[in-house]
């Protein structure tokens, strides 16, 4: 029964992909390119096919996504097993290449540990390199330790043009630190965690020691209650049993209290606590 259900699900998926693909073709004829591209993308997710990717690339050209379409044609040129479509993809990629805009991101000077993003994607390795890009506005951001973040909008409106965006990272002023990285937050959390771990294990050890002493107290009391010969000092044994019992109780109570406090500090050490300036000096704020 399970195998039959899986077979039906597998068979239904290409049918859904075919139906979505046909909807994309119909929308292309109606020149509803945005909706058509969405349909082709859905069909490709359901059942990846070179033919669907070919139609998607054609649709993307109509939307001005020239770099994306060019990359898809290049992929088909390399991997498509359909010889006719592969040759067509190679020809279309060659025709489209001069129309694809390029973006060059420049960060002078280039600081250590620089990180650059283009529309939320890390492109640090492509700084100074011509990046094929679609028409439209694109968000560019850069940052590095010890520098203020910088951002800009790359406006790509002309086909075939190379657009240059320069982001200058200004050094932080003396004593200025990034707001999102409080320097004292991590040490406070680590110290709290360390104290919690020590308290938990030392408290548990103390409680266990109390239980061991309690065992000796019970054994001594048992001997005192069963003492019947002259060589046995019942009074002394009873006194020793009471003393051991009191010590056992104290150790268990103290150990459990210490372990409980330790567990609390340990479990709350991952809170969002941080040290921030206050009128009286510093203050710890956060959720514990």
How would you concisely characterize the structure shown here?
With 288 residues, the protein is of the alpha+beta class. It has helices at residues 2-29, 33-46, 50-63, 66-79, 83-96, 185-225, 234-267; strands spanning 102-106, 115-118, 121-122, 131-132, 136-143, 150-156, 162-166, 274-278, 281-285.
Give structural attributes.
elongated; single chain; disordered C terminus; alpha+beta; 15% strand; three-stranded mixed beta sheet; 288 residues; four-stranded antiparallel beta sheet
Care to describe what's here?
- The protein is of the alpha+beta class.
- Strand 2 and strand 3 form a beta hairpin.
- The longest helix is centred in the C-terminal third of the chain and has 41 residues.
- Helix 1 runs antiparallel to helix 2.
- The N terminus and C terminus are likely disordered.
- The strands form 3 sheets. Strands 3-2-5-6 form a 4-stranded antiparallel β-sheet, with no helix packed on it.
- The two termini are 51 Å apart.
Poorly predicted tracts of residues: 1-12, 181-188, 271-288
Distance between the termini: 51 Å
Q: Using the CA coordinates, give the radius of gyration.
A: 36 Å
Beta-strand fraction estimate: 5-15%
Helix residue percentage: 55-70%
Task: Record the SSE blueprint.
Blueprint: H1 2-29, H2 33-46, H3 50-63, H4 66-79, H5 83-96, E1 102-106, E2 115-118, E3 121-122, E4 131-132, E5 136-143, E6 150-156, E7 162-166, H6 185-225, H7 234-267, E8 274-278, E9 281-285
Parallel strand pairs: 1-7
Antiparallel strand pairs: 1-4, 2-3, 2-5, 5-6, 8-9
């Amino acid at each position: 029964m399970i195998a039959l259900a899986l077979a039906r699900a597998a068979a239904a998926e290409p049918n859904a992909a075919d139906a979505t693909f046909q909807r994309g073709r119909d929308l292309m004829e109606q020149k509803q390119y945005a909706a058509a591209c969405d349909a082709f993308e859905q069909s490709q997710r359901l059942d990846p096919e070179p033919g669907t990717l070919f139609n998607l690339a054609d649709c993307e050209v109509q939307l001005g996504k020239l770099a994306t379409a060019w990359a898809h044609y290049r992929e088909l040129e390399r991997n498509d097993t359909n010889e006719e479509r592969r040759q067509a993809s190679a020809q279309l990629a060659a025709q489209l290449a001069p129309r694809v805009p390029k973006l060059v991101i420049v960060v002078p000077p280039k600081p250590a540990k620089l990180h650059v993003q283009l529309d939320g994607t890390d492109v640090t390795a492509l700084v100074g390199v011509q990046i094929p890009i679609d028409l439209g506005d694109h968000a560019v951001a850069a940052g590095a330790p010890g520098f203020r973040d910088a951002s800009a909008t790359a406006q790509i409106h002309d086909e075939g043009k190379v657009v240059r965006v320069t982001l200058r990272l200004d050094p932080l002023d003396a004593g200025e630190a990034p707001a999102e990285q409080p320097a004292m937050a991590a040490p406070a959390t680590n110290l709290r965690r360390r104290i919690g771990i020590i308290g938990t294990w030392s408290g548990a050890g103390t409680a266990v020691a109390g239980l061991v002493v309690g065992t000796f107290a019970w054994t001594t009391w048992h001997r005192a209650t069963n003492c019947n010969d002259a060589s046995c000092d019942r009074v002394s044994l009873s006194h020793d049993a009471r003393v051991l019992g009191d010590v056992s109780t104290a150790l268990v109570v103290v150990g459990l209290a210490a372990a409980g406090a330790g567990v609390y500090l340990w479990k709350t050490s991952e809170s969002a606590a941080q040290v921030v300036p206050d009128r009286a000096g510093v203050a710890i704020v956060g959720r514990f």
